[in-house]
């Protein structure tokens, strides 16, 4: 039998095998895997820095680029992700980015010099910058608005477990194996995920998104990279240092130019006109500013426990971990209440809760017990769970399906920027609260003042959240989205015009 005759019967058999699983199962599984890997990798590397410094005979501060290059490269890759998904299809882009991320992880583990390690980390960041929007676009294209609330209950799991478990896992790998395993550990999770996606993820050839907006890519990537570098390095080098000042000024100028260009181009790489939808604009603004107190509380907690109270890293990790249980518990309740009361009340009440818990943290001192701190972390998680899912789902309630990839890209840009602002804000507050004549570690009062500053930000965002126009979001959650993928708001406008 010739090879050609032997291969023909195998094709329909493989097609039948690969179509057994529903995309409503395959897509969430893939999204959970890639989200967990990308988030965990961003959090686990910091634990390995001292060991890496010893390996290459450098100070830990000299390896700061290993950490900073990841979010910078990630931000630079995000603008092109929507065009890539529209052009080549979600499956091809997601799997290519995942394979690139895993290959870069392997190279990071084999790096023979700090320069190689930074270069490979940049490839990791570029791949992750495509992974996040591509997986989000697949998810929101597979499920309706009413279903997205329910599926978000499960999608929140990797987003909470990964940053909580990564430091603990990283410490175990570094102590019992080598620092190289903080990168190798991505392979046992990522390779099965890539194989699973190749077999079961539905393939789409993509479409014709239009001419590639090269000026938009160059301007937006350079702007986001410069801004992200300035934000990440500001607390370490000082906000008045030449590198940070030039980076932020250059990034601001490039960002302004990118906005002007993208609003004039007929087919922009970043569809900034989507911010014309008030619900999309307001929820993204809440994400940008609201993530500062939320993620800032997650960042300052380990610092307070280890520096102000002298706890070990293991004690710190086990004490901050209850936050994840609080989030997972609240998300289940939010999924039931979302369509009934709408995102406005849920988000607003959640931010009020975040503000209240931050005020409790501001009362902690050097003698506060671990179980008290754990209780506060659990309460913080309960309040945070009211923020994540409603802001994400509501932001897309008035966005048509053809713009989902673009909207997901803009959402990712906003969340990544908010996530970078959080530690920068905390570190700045701690520096301002530390007297110049004292030791390097901030005093307890500096942490208390930082918590108060975060609480004030949460209160401001809470007031803004109660003004959210969530009528279209409630209608979409109840199944009121037009069957052709048109948003409810536009459908109602057309009905009024026709009537």
- Radius of gyration (CA) equals 23 Å
What quaternary form is this? Answer: single chain
Strand content: under 5%
Q: What proportion of the residues is helical, as a percent range?
A: over 70%
Shape: globular
Strand pairing plus helix content: what structural class?
mainly alpha
The pLDDT mean sits at: 77
Query: In angstroms, what separates the terminal alpha carbons?
Result: 68 Å
Describe this structure in words.
- The protein has 499 residues and is mostly helical.
- The chain is 79% helix and 0% strand.
- The longest helix is centred in the first third of the chain and has 34 residues, at 23-56.
- It is globular, with a radius of gyration of 23 Å.
Present the secondary structure layout.
Elements (H helix, E strand, L loop, with lengths): L2 H16 L4 H34 L7 H25 L1 H20 L4 H29 L2 H32 L4 H4 L1 H15 L13 H24 L4 H23 L13 H31 L4 H8 L1 H20 L1 H19 L8 H26 L8 H29 L11 H22 L5 H7 L10 H11 L1
Helix pairs in contact: 2-3, 2-5, 2-6, 2-8, 3-4, 3-5, 3-9, 3-16, 4-5, 4-8, 5-16, 6-12, 6-13, 6-15, 9-10, 9-16, 11-12, 11-14, 11-15, 11-16, 11-17, 13-14, 13-15, 13-18, 14-15, 14-17, 16-17
């Amino acid at each position: 039998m010739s090879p050609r005759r032997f291969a023909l019967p195998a094709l329909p058999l493989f097609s039948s095998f690969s179509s057994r699983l529903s995309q409503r199962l395959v897509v969430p599984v893939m999204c959970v895997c890639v989200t967990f890997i990308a988030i965990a990798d961003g959090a686990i590397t910091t634990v390995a820095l001292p060991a890496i410094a010893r390996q290459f005979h450098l100070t830990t501060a000299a390896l700061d680029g290993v950490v900073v290059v990841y979010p910078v490269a990630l931000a630079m890759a995000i603008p092109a992700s929507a065009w890539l998904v529209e052009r080549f299809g979600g499956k091809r882009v997601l799997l290519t980015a995942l394979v690139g991320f895993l290959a870069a992880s392997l190279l990071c583990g084999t790096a023979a010099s700090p320069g190689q390690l930074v270069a490979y980390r940049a490839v990791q960041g570029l791949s992750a910058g495509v992974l996040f929007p591509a997986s989000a676009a697949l998810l929101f294209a597979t499920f309706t608005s009413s279903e997205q609330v329910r599926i978000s209950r499960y999608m929140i799991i990797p987003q909470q477990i990964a940053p909580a478990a990564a430091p603990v896992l990283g410490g175990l790998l570094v102590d019992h194996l080598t620092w190289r395993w903080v990168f190798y550990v991505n392979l046992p999770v990522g390779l099965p995920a890539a194989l699973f996606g190749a077999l079961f993820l539905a393939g789409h050839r993509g479409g014709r998104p239009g001419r590639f907006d090269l000026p938009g890519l160059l301007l937006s990537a350079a702007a986001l990279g410069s801004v992200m570098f300035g934000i990440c390095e500001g607390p370490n080098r000082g906000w008045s240092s030449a590198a940070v000042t030039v980076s932020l000024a250059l990034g601001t100028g490039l960002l302004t130019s990118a906005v002007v260009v993208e609003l004039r181009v007929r087919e922009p790489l970043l569809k900034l006109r989507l911010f014309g939808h008030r619900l999309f604009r307001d929820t993204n603004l809440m994400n940008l500013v609201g993530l500062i107190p939320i993620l800032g509380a997650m960042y300052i907690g380990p610092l307070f426990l280890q520096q102000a109270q002298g706890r070990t890293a293991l004690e710190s990790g086990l004490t901050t971990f209850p936050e994840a249980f609080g989030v997972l518990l609240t998300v289940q309740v939010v999924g039931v209440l979302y369509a009934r009361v709408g995102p406005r009340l849920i988000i607003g009440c959640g931010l009020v809760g975040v503000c209240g818990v931050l005020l409790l943290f501001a009362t902690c001192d050097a003698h506060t017990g671990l179980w008290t701190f754990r209780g506060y972390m659990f309460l913080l998680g309960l309040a945070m769970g009211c923020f994540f899912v409603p802001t994400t789902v509501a932001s897309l309630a008035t966005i048509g399906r053809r713009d989902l990839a673009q909207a997901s890209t803009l959402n990712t840009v906003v969340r990544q920027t908010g996530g970078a602002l959080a530690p920068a804000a905390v570190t700045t507050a701690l520096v301002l609260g530390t007297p110049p004549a004292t030791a390097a570690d901030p005093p307890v009062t500096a942490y208390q003042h930082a918590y108060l500053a975060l609480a004030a930000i949460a209160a401001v965002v809470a007031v803004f959240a109660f003004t959210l126009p969530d009528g279209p979001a409630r209608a979409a959650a109840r199944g009121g989205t037009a069957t052709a993928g048109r948003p409810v708001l536009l459908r109602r406008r057309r009905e009024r015009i026709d009537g």
